[in-house]
Design brief:
about 120 residues; alpha+beta; SH3 type barrels; 5-stranded antiparallel beta sheet; about 20% strand; SH3-like_dom_sf; FYB2 protein; phosphoprotein
Length: about 120
């Protein structure tokens, strides 16, 4: 044995079933579309734009929409009016505008806007 062969580690050669090998090649040869997520993102952004437009019309809100704070809903609360935002316990909300009184305008993860009472929110 020579010096180079002395330190080679012998590894068993794994045999691949011919059918599997052919199938794998055909799968690799097929052109894959890696941008499939884009469609759902476009649909989501269109829905968000629609919700924002509805919000601006309903609340007559012409200012820039900025997130003032993030809050978590402490309990589940159904909406009493059309302008109220229904809550589920533990839901993450973004506070858009603080009104006078006990209500704030919030946005949920689905992009819906509405009034939420401060007593139902946790700002930690």
């Amino acid at each position: 044995r020579g010096k180079d062969e002395k330190y080679k580690v012998w590894m068993p050669k794994l045999r691949v079933v011919k059918e599997y090998k052919d199938k794998r090649k055909s799968i690799d040869d097929v052109e894959r579309n890696i941008f499939t997520f884009k469609k759902s993102g476009e649909e989501k952004s269109k829905k968000m734009e629609k919700e924002e437009k509805l919000f601006r019309e309903t609340f007559m809100y012409d200012k820039e929409i900025r997130v003032l704070a993030r809050a978590t809903a402490e309990r589940s609360v159904p909406s009493q009016r059309r302008v109220d935002l229904p809550l589920t316990a533990g839901e993450q909300l973004e506070v858009i505008d603080a009104m006078r009184g006990r209500a704030v305008i919030c946005r949920n993860a689905q992009g819906r806007y509405g009034y939420v009472l401060v007593e139902h929110l946790n700002f930690r």
